[in-house]
Amino acid sequence: MRPRERAVPTLVYLLGQFPSLSETFILREMTTLEAMGFRLLPLSMMPAPTEPVHAEASGLAERTLYRPRPFSARTWLGLLRTALQRPLGLCAALALVARHALVFPRCLVELVSALLAASYFASVLPRHALRHVHCHFANYPTTVGLMLAELCGSGLSFSCHARDIMVGEPALLPRKLREADFVAVCTRTGLERLQRNHSLTSGEKLRLIHHGLDWERLGRQPRVEYPVPLILAVGRLVEKKGFPFLLQAAAILAGRGLQFELIIVGDGPQRDELERLAGGLGLRQRTVFAGPLRQDELAHVYRRADVLCVPSVVAADGDRDGLPNVILEAMAFGVPVVASNLPGIAEAVIAEETGLLVAPGAPNELAEAVERAIGDAELRDRLIRNAREKVAREFDLWDNTAALAALFAQCLELRHWQPPRRPGRAGDGHTAGIESS
Question: Using the 8-state DSSP alphabet, how is residue 360 labeled?
C-alpha cells in the first residue's frame, strides 16, 4: 500500500467576505473539509470584518488573503507582477474580458474589477496552490474565480445558493457553467431552475449538495426552561425575511392575551423601521432586537426557544430565501419551526410533519400556527421527532461534505480517495482519505 502523501494540494476557496458571521454554513463546510484532510486557502473579496466572528473561523482567518482596495497601488502592482509571471494567462484573461464586454457591455465594470482582483491573487498565491479554485455564490466571486482560473490554468467550481440564481442572472453564467468542473446547488428548487434555464451549458455538472450541520452535537444540548414562551426569529433584517409580518402576528397574539417574548437575531437596513413598528404595535416590552450573534451565543437562545418563525416573502426584486440554515439548526435543537410556504423552505419543512407552513405575508395564519406550535404538546412532540429524523437523514454535515470532497478529489486527481470515517466513531483509525496522484 502506498504511503499517504504529506503535501496535499491546496484548495483555494474564493468568498465574498471571510470570516462572515452570517454564513455559518460555509464555515462548517470549510472546517469539515479540513477535518477530511484538505488544506484550504481562503480568498476574501472584502476586508476582514470588524465585528466578532465564530471561534471556529480563527485558524482559517489567519491564513486568509484579502483583496486590496480596487485601483490601489497594491492592485496595480499585482497586475504588473502577474504580467511578468504569467503573460500568456494574462493575455487569455484580457481576451475573455474584451470578448464578453463587446457582447455584454453592462458587465464591463464587473469584468475589469474581477480581472484586477484575480491578478492580485495570482501574484501573491504560491504556484502549488493554484490547481483548483472553488467559489461561493455564482455572481461576483465566481467572476473573479473564472478570471483566476484563466490566469493560472487551474480548475474551477462554484456553489449556488439563493439570490445569486433567483434574482436576475449573474454575469457570464453560461460561460461559468461551461468552464466549471462541477456546480454545487444547495436546494432542489435552485437545481431545477438552473437545469431549466441552462440545460445546454450545465450538462451533468449540476450537483445537489445540501448544507449540513452536526445534528448529533446540537441535539445533545439540553433545553433550558424560559419564564414565558419564547418566539425566535433569525436572519438579516431585509425585505425577503418578512419580519414586519412576524411583528403583526405577534401583535395579534398579544391581543389574544398570550404571554410571550419575541427575540429577533440579526441586523440589516430594516432595523430602525422594524423597531418603530414594534413600538407602534405595542410590542416594545415583548420584543428584543438582539443584533448579530456568534454561533455559540445563538445556541443559548435556541435552547430556550419554544418556536422558530421564518416569515419569508418574495421581495419586490424577486429575491427570496432558499432553505435558511436557521431552519435546520432549530430542527436539530428540537425547536418547532413555523415558516412561509416557499419552495426551498418546503424541502425541509413538511407541513404538519416536520413543521408548520403558512402563506407568505399572512400574519393571521402565522399567529395561528405559532399559537398551535406553543400550545399543542402532542403536535410539538411529533414535529420535533420528525424534524430531527429528517435532518439526520438528509442534512448531516459529514455526509454532505463528503459528497463535495469526493468531487474535489476528482478535480485534484487524488487517487484512491475515499470518504474518511467521521471523528469519534468506533473503529475510526484515521481522519483523512487523501492520497496524492
Answer: T
Q: Are residues 65 and 105 in the same domain?
A: yes
The verdict on 18 and 108 lying in the same domain is yes
pLDDT tens-digit series, residues 373-386:
999 999 999 999 99
Q: Which three cell numbers stand for residue 257?
A: 392575551
Query: Does 378 share its domain with 400?
Result: no
255 and 329 both lie in a single domain: yes
Place of cell 488544506: 39
Say if CB 417 and CB 406 are below 8 A apart. Answer: yes
In a domain, 299, yes or no: yes
Tell me, yes or no, whether 23 and 95 share the same domain: yes
Does residue 435 surpass a pLDDT of 60? no
Question: Which amino acid type is present at position 245?
Answer: F
Total number of domains constituting the chain: 2
pLDDT in tens, 195-230: 988 887 777 899 999 999 998 888 888 899 999 999
How high is the pLDDT of residue 370? 98
CATH of the domain at 256: 3.40.50.2000
DSSP three-state, residue 309: strand
Q: Which domain holds residue 357?
A: 217-393
> What does the DSSP 8-state code read for residue 266?
B
Grid coordinates belonging to 12: 483555494
Rounded to whole angstroms, how far apart are CA atoms 27 and 397?
A: 11
Type of residue numbered 118: A
Same domain as 149, residue 243 = no
Give buried/exposed letters for 395-417 (b at 16+ CB in 10 A, else e): bbbbebbbebbebbbebbebeeb
236 with 107, same domain: the answer is no
pLDDT, tens digit, for every residue of 283-312? 999 999 999 998 889 999 999 999 999 999
Q: Do the bridges between strand 287-291 and strand 307-310 make them parallel or antiparallel, or are there none, so unpaired?
A: unpaired
For residues 135-164, average pLDDT: 94
Write out the three cell numbers for 196.
431549466
Question: Ranked by mean pLDDT, which of 59-63, 282-286, 421-425 comes out on top?
Answer: 282-286
pLDDT higher than 90, residue 15:
yes
Grid cell for residue 1: 500500500
